[in-house]
Amino acid sequence: QLVAYEVKRMRAEEGNKQKILWHIKELAEKLYKNENPYPAVTMHKVQKPTEGCHLRLHQKPFPRLDEGTVQWIIDQATAKLQTAPPAVKAEKKCMVPSGPPIAAILERNGNALANSARRLEVVRNCISYVFENKMLEAKKLFPAVLRAMKGRAARHCLTQELNLHVQQNRAVLDHQQFDFIIRMMNCCLQDCTAMDEHGIAAALLPLVTAFCRKLSPGITQFAYSCVQEHV
């Protein structure tokens, strides 16, 4: 329902913190009522008399109960129970329109798209420089690439680009190239969430068994040996 109906309202409230907080509070109450539809029944606790209380002097006698008053209270409670709604509410089913596409909500304006495209371009360029052995150029872009790894699109871009180079039989790297690629992979995995486990992390699995460097004749180190500590 929020996706279908509330997008315009949410956009209109973007600059007003009080309105946003009020909206969040309103939504929180709806969610709470949805999870807790029936108010909790309060149990009246009757305190037990303390030990030795019967030995006390000046005890007030228990007052006589008026039969009419007691019966009136019972009748009132019975009448309330008869008019009370059924314990289980009938579930109301309703059709909710799909509303605007999700992309319209996630990407608030063109700037976000442009920024995202620039980040992906930086990642692609840096990887190209590494494989072309333009290490000075790669070093300049490297901090920006590591920052970009915070975004899922950039992490996905990294796996795609590295996959292209594996297909071109460029998996055997020199020491400096290997170091750059390992740092990118580590940063990518570090920023992965549980949601990325079957996407980004799974896409990196075949890559970390492909990229390698020759340490000495007959001894090869594969990338997985440097990134296998990640959950």
Describe the structure.
- The mean pLDDT is 80.
- It contains 11 helices and 3 strands, in the order ααααααααβααββα.
- It has a 3-stranded mixed β-sheet.
- The chain is elongated.
- It has helices spanning 2-5, 7-12, 17-35, 67-83, 102-106, 110-131, 135-148, 152-167, 175-190, 197-208, 224-227; strands spanning 172-173, 212-216, 219-222.
- The chain has 231 residues and is mostly helical.
- α6 runs antiparallel to α7 (135-148), α7 runs parallel beside α9 (175-190) and α8 (152-167) runs parallel beside α10.
- 58% of the residues lie in helices and 5% in strands.
- β2 and β3 (219-222) form a beta hairpin.
- It has a domain at 102-225.
- It comes from Nyctibius grandis.
- This is MTMR5 protein.
Order of helices and strands: HHHHHHHHEHHEEH
Strand percent estimate: under 5%
Count of DSSP strands: 3
Shape: elongated
Query: For the residues shown, what is the average pLDDT?
Result: 80
- Helix % is 55-70%
Q: What integer value in Å does the Rg equal?
A: 34 Å
- The helix tally amounts to 11
Care to give the gist of this entry?
This protein has 231 residues and is mainly alpha-helical.
